[in-house]
Amino acid sequence: MMQGLRRQPAGLSKDLANKKRCLVVGVLNVTPDSFSDGGLFTDTTTAINHAKQLIAQGADLIDVGGESTKPGASRIENIEEQKRVIPVIEELTNLGIITSIDTMRSQTAELAVKVGAQIVNDVSGGLADENMHKTVAGLDVPYVLMHWRGHSTVMDELANYQSVVEEVINELKLQIEKAIKAGINRNKIVIDPGLGFAKKPEHNWQILKEINKLHSLDLPIYIGASRKRFLADFAFPKGSTDPKDRDLATSAISSYASLNGAWAVRVHDVAGSVAAVKVNNQLEEI
User: What is the rounded distance in angstroms from the CA atom of residue 143 to the CA atom of residue 198?
Assistant: First the structure.
C-alpha cells in the first residue's frame, strides 16, 4: 500500500535508486562527543572498520558526521570537522561504499562530495550556513533538508509549538523555497522532520503519529529517531539510561516509518532496522 507513497530523490546512484523499499542509513560519527557513540570511531581505521560492519549488517549507505549535534554540544572549527570526515569518506568511496556527509557547513559538504559523498545531509536545513543551498545547488546531489530552529546549545529552549506538525511543515516549506531559489532542484530535496531537534518527547510522538501529513510536501521523507532521548521509556532492559538499549524501540520506529512511506531511516544499529523494512517490503510485494 505504501509503495506508491514512497518517493525517492533524483540523482541517486543505481545501487540506491533500484531498491524499492525504505533505505537503511548507517550512522558513523567520527566524533569524541556524540551522545551514543562518541569517542568510539575517532581515528580513520576504526571508523572504516565500523562502516564495514554496518554494511555487513545490511546498511544501504553510511552517513558520516564529524560534529556532534547532541543537546548542549558546542561547535567545532571547520578544519577540525574536515580532518575527521574527509579521509573516512575518501577511503569508504575507494572501497565502493556509498556515503552521505552529515554537516551544516557548505565547505565541508563541498569537500566531502569531491572525495565521493553522494548525498548532503544538513540537519540545519540551510539555516546554519547561508552558503549551503547555493553550494549544494552547484554540487547537484540529493540534499536532506531537516527541520531545525537553532544550535545544540539553545535548541531545547526553542521547543515551543502551538501545533507542532503544522509548524514543522510550514517551516520546512520556507527552507524548501529558499533551497529552490538558490538553485537546488526540487526533485533532489529530501525532508526530515528533525525528531529530537528543538522538540520535546510529546512533539516527537505527535510528528510520528501524523507522519502521513509530511507527504503533503510531496518530497521523500527521512527519519532519524535512533537512540534518541524520547525513546528512553522503551529501553531494554527497563530503566537503562544507555542509548544502545533503545535499539529495539528504534527498530520499531523504522518499521512504522517504512510502512508510512519513508524513503530512509538513519540508525546506529542497522540489523534490526534492515529486518524491519525488509519484512514490510515482503508484505507489500505479496
Answer: 21
